[in-house]
Each structure stands twice: as structure tokens, then as C-alpha cells.
Amino acid sequence: MTDDTFIEGPLYEKRRKVYPQSVHGPFRRIKWAILCVTLGVYYLLPFVRWNRGPGLPDQAVLIDLPHRRFYFFFIELWPQEVYYFTGLLILAAMMLFLMNAVAGRLWCGYLCPQTVWTDLFYAVERWVEGDRRERMQGDKRYWTFDHIRKVALKHFLWIMIAWWTGGAWVLYFDDAPTLVKELATFQAPFTAYLWIGILTATTYVFAGHAREQMCIYMCPWPRIQAALTDEWALNVTYRRDRGEPRMSVKKAEAARAHGDFAGDCVDCHQCINVCPTGVDIRHGIQLGCIQCGLCIDACDNVMSEIGRPKGLIGYDTDINMQRRREGKPPIYRIIRARTLVYTAAIAIVGTIMVYTLATRATMDVNVLHERNPLFVQLSDGGVRNDYTVRILNKGAERSFALKVSGLPGATVRVAGVEPGPDGNPVVQVGQDQTREVRMSVQVSPDRVPRAAIDIGVEITDVGSGERAEARDHFVPKE
């Protein structure tokens, strides 16, 4: 027995080009609506303005890398608040799991960027070269002048869409109108041109050439989704109990006239022709099926033409397929343990994020004890400890009074800062800035503690009275 005995099929299969046919129906309209909304938001959002006051950027959504800020309308996030992005990732994962538990690969079929941009590229291709039949005939002729002209125009439009896709992305990292002007006059930073080039190339390749191969071979989600789904999840399903045996329209009519059962499927292949990945849904759920519902539209249109009920292909569950075979009515359970757990996780994480965002402080303080030396013994027998204090101000320019708690009789001094009326130094911090100062805490000989003790370094907004505190320790003489 040779090793070839165990090989059931080829290890490599040459790509068969897919020529999706245009289709009309509710699912196609849903996909057009999502495409227009998502791409409209992506391309236009950098130009939306939001007034944050003097000295702050007025772009509604901005990733300000030089100043290490992320602005989203009225929300401003600092690097120290990276946990909000962690929360967003958790929410995104839970939403993905919930969509899968309710109706399979909803993300893949309607919201995935690869799906959205590929749909747009297909629309351009149909507009330039024609529908499925015209494109297939054109590829066979190939070297005719008319075909070359159409292909050149198609690729030019693809590159323009890809170029604007890359250009829109970099606009989220700088003031959009200013950057557009700089790009047009070749005064923009080299990094901007580099990333536009990279994203133009990837969009052009992924949406124009890789297409369904991204979904079948490169994307990990179909493999993960298969492990997360269950028998209650709605998936695009060919109802075999109604469709088989397949016959032509005339043969089916003749069979029914004689009292024999005939399936509603007329083997027209319209469900295959409209599929963007070339899947035959009649073979069941497959890795390549992104469950976009276009085969449902195609099949419903055919059923209407031949006078048969719609729904030969539709969103259904494995449970209902079994129940129909047993002659039982279908049942649906959208609300079940799995969906409740995902919904609860989304609600809990979302509530925590909203609460922390609504109650977060606009100021903070960090303290670092000097290590060398840990303390300084003064000539009069007193002891001094030095600290590096960093004050974070997330609002307008403010003054902060600095004091120490937990160490009675301590004197606080800050290099280069005069003490306030109560003897505590008052530190000025500019708008949306951090300021680092060197603080000295000194106690007289009769106040020196016998052992190291914890102290609190507190800052108080002179105007509003808002406070923030950090803990450290005071080291006495040995």
C-alpha cells in the first residue's frame, strides 16, 4: 500500500474565477444600504468638526499621535486610559459571538470590510464590463480592443477607490482639510504618502484580486465561527425536504399531474451564479459561504417566476431541518442561554465603560521616591526625602496646591515654585499637559519617625477644589 492511497483529493487546486451575477431582492438592498452607510462614514468622518474650545483640535475623530491623544467627539482619551480600548475589544468580541449565535456569519456577509469593499469593486466591474455573461465572454476574447479598454477603465477606477481608501485612513491622524491640502501640494510628510501607498495596494489586491480567497483561505473567523455555532443558530439553508428531487419545470409539472412528488428546485444554478464566493448552497453549510443571503434573493425570484412558494433557500436552523423531516412545525429560540450570556457580558462591560467614562477624573498625580539617596540628614538633625511628582491635567490650564498627609509637621517645597498663602506650593499646569516637578519633604529632628511610614501626596485644584492623591513612603535616618 502506497502513501497515495490515503490522499482523497489534490493538495492544491487552481483558482476558478468567480463571476457573480447581479441580483435584486431584500438582502441585496440591505447590503447596498450597509455599504453606503459604512463607506460614507469611513470616507466623510474625518471632515466632521467638533468644537472643544480654544487650543484643542476641532476634528470630531482624531488620533493625535504627536500629543498622544485620541479624540472621539466629546471623548478625549489619554495613553493612561488604554483600558478603554481593551473594553472596546471585549465588546467587539462579544458582539461578534452574539451575531454568530443569532444568525451565523452576519459579520462576514454584511459588515466585514473585505465584503463591503469587494461588493463595491464588483459593482464597478459590472458597470464597466457588464453582468456575468458579458464578463465571461469578454475574458474569453480578452485581446480585443473593446475588452482591453474596459479592463483598463475598470482597474483605473479600482485604483482610484483604493487610493481614496488609503487617503481617508491617514486623515484620521491629522487635521483632514489641512492634510488634504498638503497632500495635493506635495508638502505632506513622507509617512503619509507611504501609508497611502500601502493601503492603496492592499485594498486594490484584496478587494480587486484576492476577493473570495481572503474569506476562504486567509480569514481565521470561519474556522472559529464553526466551533462557536450551535444547532439553534440561523444560517442560510437549502431546504432539501422541499427542493429534492430536482427537476425541470416541465418535468415537475408532469410529475405533479400524475400525483408524484417533485421538488421545487429546478436546478437553474442561479443560487450559485449570484454567490460572491461561488458556493453551491445546496451542498449545505460550507467554509466559503459568507451567508450574505444573495442566494435567497435569487431563488425567491425564480420561485416567483415559476409560480412556486418562496423560501426554498432561507435562514433556518439545524433543528428545524430535522423537525421538517419528522413532519413537525419549525421552532425558533433566539433567546437562550448562549445569547443571554453574550448579551449580559455586553451590558456589563458597556455599563462599566460608560460609568468610568462619566466619573473619570480630569486630573491625576504620580509620585516616585528618589532612590539615591533615599534620605538626606540635615545639619540640625532633621531628615529630607526627595520625590519626583508628575501632575496630569486633562482640562484647561489650572493651578494645583501640593501637600503631604500622614507626616505631621512636614514642610513641602518644590524647586522653582513659590509657596501659596497656606505654605503649600502651587504648581501651574497647562491645558492638556503633564508637568514633572521635584518635591522635597522635610521634617524637624523632633518629628522624624522611627521607621519608614506611608504618606499621601495630594494635589488640589485651587479653582474647583477637585483632589487627587498618590501614595509613597518617607524614609527616616538610619
TrEMBL record:
Q: Which organism is it from?
A: Bradyrhizobium symbiodeficiens
Domain 4Fe-4S ferredoxin-type residues, every copy: 255-284
**Superkingdom, taxonomy of origin:** Bacteria
Q: Transmembrane ranges?
A: 30-48, 82-103, 151-172, 192-210, 340-358
| Range of residues in the leader sequence | none
Q: Which gene is this protein's source?
A: ccoG
User: Which key words tag this protein in UniProt?
Assistant: 4Fe-4S, Electron transport, Iron, Iron-sulfur, Membrane, Metal-binding, Transmembrane, Transmembrane helix, Transport
Q: Does the keyword Cell membrane apply?
A: no
InterPro entries membership = 4Fe4S_Fe-S-bd, 4Fe4S_Fe_S_CS, Cyt_c_oxidase_cbb3_FixG, Electron_Trans/Redox, FixG_C, Ig-like_fold
The family database entries (Gene3D superfamilies) matched by this protein are listed as: Immunoglobulins (2.60.40.10)
Q: What is this protein called?
A: Cytochrome c oxidase accessory protein CcoG
